[in-house]
Amino acid sequence: MKITSKLLSALFLFAVLLVKADDEVPPVPGGGGTGGVGPGAAASPIDMYVYVLSVVAIALILFYTKKLKSLKA
């Protein structure tokens, strides 16, 4: 039961951080300038891989939790 509650807490924290990550985008510069990246948008190449990184993180949590549990047994 302890492992499950810790896992759910970590998953909830990760979900909150994932939702809040999109909240802090800098404003688009005015005047029609392109800025240093393109048409005024912030460069965030990690955005394409958010879902993949989420699945990998959950898989690693499950793997190391199972590994730690088998070492204690």
From TrEMBL:
Signal peptide interval: 1-21
Name of this chain's protein: Signal peptidase
Keywords of the record: Membrane, Signal, Transmembrane, Transmembrane helix
Transmembrane segments: 48-65
Keyword flag Membrane: yes
Organism name: Chryseobacterium pyrolae
